[in-house]
Amino acid sequence: MNKKKEVIPIRTRKGSVYQKGTNEVFKISRSKFSNFLDCPRCFYLERVKGLKDPGMPGWALNTAVDELLKKEFDHYRKSQKPHPLITKNNLNFIPFQHDKIDYWRDALRGGIAFTDADTNLEIHGGVDDI
Fold first, then answer.
1. Is 5 left (phi over 0), alpha (psi -120 to 50) or beta?
2. Rounded CA gap, 7 and 72, in Å?
3. For the chain, what is the radius of gyration of the CA atoms?
4. Is 53 strand, coil or helix?
5. Angle at 117 between CA 116 and CA 120, to 5 degrees
6. Sign (positive/negative) of CA torsion 46, 47, 50, 54?
7. What is the pLDDT along the chain (130 residues), one digit of tens a residue?
8. Quick check: helix, strand or coil at residue 26?
9. Which DSSP state fits 110?
């Protein structure tokens, strides 16, 4: 805050702070939408006022597990057979095979998105599996 008790934004990317009245689509990720559901005030402070969240420790373990599971399911996707966890639960699901699966998984350079025309809000993210 400055001497006038005004919030001074500390976000560096202009596109990450919502500007009311703009015609530009405002993008938020699935995880940011989840943050809004968990704490609307925290979301408002970060995305409207520009106050950066203090953050969390690194995601090394989560990233490693995610990568290993994707590789494992890719093995069954390629052979078009259900994963043992699926058959163990009496299900017959085969991982979906598609040329764009890697693009859909890449939340930063690809992913999937939905834009709401009424609010001009786009929610985007990467899929884990289909």
1. left
2. 47
3. 19
4. coil
5. 75
6. positive
7. 567 776 665 655 566 788 888 888 888 888 888 989 999 998 888 888 888 777 777 788 888 999 999 999 999 999 999 999 999 999 999 999 999 999 999 988 999 999 999 989 999 999 999 8
8. strand
9. S
